[in-house]
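Customer escalation, tier 2.

The customer says the design service returned an amino acid string that "doesn't look like it belongs to this structure." They asked us to rerun it and document both sides in this ticket. The original structure tokens are below, unchanged.
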């Protein structure tokens, strides 16, 4: 092992392996686009377009994100380990989300599917996709037009809770409904 050419070859192999490892993270799906032209559904013509999230959005203005979360109970539903089945609690939250979305027919959403850190990257992306689609299919069955709903899977790449215990895992196994456009700001 005193051969300098062998050492250079081993170093090159390690660098190539490290480069391949870093490249996988770039394959993550992008964040969903943020709303650029929110609609004024209050009827008051208050000109809230361009308002920041502080102030107006925190007052549960009808048609806003805070109103959506308040009326629905949550913008997310949780799943059991290695499951994409909707339990009664998840169905309750999604049912309220469907009612809110029926009132604000101009709002488009993305449902993000997430998993805990266990499992391979590929498996978790597929499981996150199944979770997002389970939520989408439930909303569509409740009358929300499928054309208003996009889905995306982040797998285990965007955990809500850091940690490697069951409490963190339970928070990370989720589908999150994100308002894209048409909501009041």
């Amino acid at each position: 092992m005193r051969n300098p050419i062998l050492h250079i070859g081993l170093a090159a192999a390690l660098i190539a392996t490290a480069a391949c490892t870093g490249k996988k993270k770039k394959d993550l799906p992008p964040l969903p686009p943020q709303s650029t032209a929110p609609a004024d559904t209050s009827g008051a013509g208050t000109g809230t377009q361009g308002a920041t999230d502080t102030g107006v959005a925190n007052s549960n203005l009808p048609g806003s994100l805070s109103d959506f979360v308040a009326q629905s109970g949550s913008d997310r539903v949780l799943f059991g380990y290695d499951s994409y089945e909707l339990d009664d609690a998840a169905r309750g939250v999604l049912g309220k989300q469907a009612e809110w979305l029926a009132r604000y027919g101009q709002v488009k959403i993305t449902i993000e599917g997430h998993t805990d850190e266990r499992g391979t990257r590929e498996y978790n992306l597929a499981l996150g996709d199944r979770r997002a689609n389970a939520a989408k299919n439930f909303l569509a069955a409740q009358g929300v037009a499928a054309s208003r709903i996009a889905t995306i899977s982040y797998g285990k790449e965007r955990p809500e809770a850091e940690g490697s215990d069951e409490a963190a895992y339970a928070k990370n196994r989720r589908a999150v409904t994100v308002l894209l456009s048409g909501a009041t700001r």
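Tier 2 assessment: The sequence is consistent with the input. Confidence is low (pLDDT under 50) at residues 14-24, 35-57. The two ends are 66 Å apart (CA to CA). Sent an explanation to the customer and offered a walkthrough call.
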